[in-house]
Amino acid sequence: MNWTGEIAIFSGNAHKRLAQAVSESLRVSIGAVEVFQFSNENIFVRYLENIRHRDVFIIQPHARPVNDSIMELLIMIDAAKRASAGRVTAVIPYYAYGRTDKKDQPRVPITARLLADLITTAGADRVLTMDLHAGQIQGFFNIPVDELTALPLLSKYLLSGRDDRQDYVVVAPDEGTVKRARNLAYELDAPLAIIEKRRVGNDEKVEARNVIGEVSGKNAILVDDEIDTGGSMVAAIEVLRSHGIADVSSMVTHPVLSGNALDRLSQAGLKELVVTDTLPVDNSATNGIKLRTVSVASLLAEAISRIHSGESIGDLFS
User: Fold this and answer.
1) Which domains does the chain have, with CATH numbers?
2) Full 3-state SS string of 26-60
C-alpha cells in the first residue's frame, strides 16, 4: 500500500536529537506529542495533532533508562492506534535485551521474545531496527521487521583517509561476530582474525583465550554490534597485545557504554572507538580515546521513506 502524503514522525524522550535529524533528512516537521511521567512514575502520552489514517513512525531506541524507554514506546504505540493512525511503525535503532534471545541456562526467560510480544500487542504494525544482537530476534515478531545495518556507513568512515589498509586486520571478538567482521574485512580488503572467548557466569566477566589468524605487527580493528561495559573488548585487546598487535581500534554500532566502560578501554590501550548515534553519545568525557560518531539519521530516513512509499529496503544494501 502507498501511504504517500500521510507520513508522521514522532519521538519519545529516548533520543530526540536523532529523531530530529531523521525528520530533517525527510524534510518533514517532527510531530507534536506529550510524553512525560507523573510524580508516581506513571507515563502519560498525548498526541497534539490529528494522526487519523496517517502513516506514523515512532522513533524510540531503548536508551537509558531502558525500561522507561520501552514503556514510553509501548504507550505511544497504543495511543497512536487508539487515535486511529493508519499504520504504526516502531523505529527502534537499538533493541534492548538482545542477549536474552534463548534459554542458555535452566529457568531463565527469553526476554527478547517477550519484548517482541509486548510491541506487537501494543499495536505496532511493523518494526524498523538496526544491527540486532542476534538475527533470530526478527523471528520473534509476527509482524514485518526491517533490520538495517550500519556496516556500510562505518566502513565508509574507516576507508576515508586510510592509505595504510594493508597493515590492518579485522578482528571478531567472538564467534558470534564473525559474519559482521568478515563483511568489513571484505570492504577494507583486509585479513580476518577471530578471538576465542568464553563468558564467565552472569557477572559480565569475559575470558579471551586464543587468536585464530595472523595479527602480529598489524593494526587491529575490533568489530561488534554493541559495546556495554567494555569487558569483551578489554579481554580481546589483552589477548591481541599478547600476540604482538601494534595498535587497536574498534568499530561498534551501538554505544551502550555502561559504567566506567571508557575508563576500562582507555586503560587497556584502545586507540580509537567508532560508533553510531543509535544511542545518545556524550563526547565530552572520552578518557583519552578518540571517540568518533557516525550518524545513522540519513539511513533511517531513507528506510522510512521507502517503507512509506512501498519501495524495497533490500535495495539500500544491494
Assistant:
1) 7-149+297-317 (3.40.50.2020), 151-294 (3.40.50.2020)
2) HCCCECCEEEEECCCCCEEEEECCCCECCEEEEEC
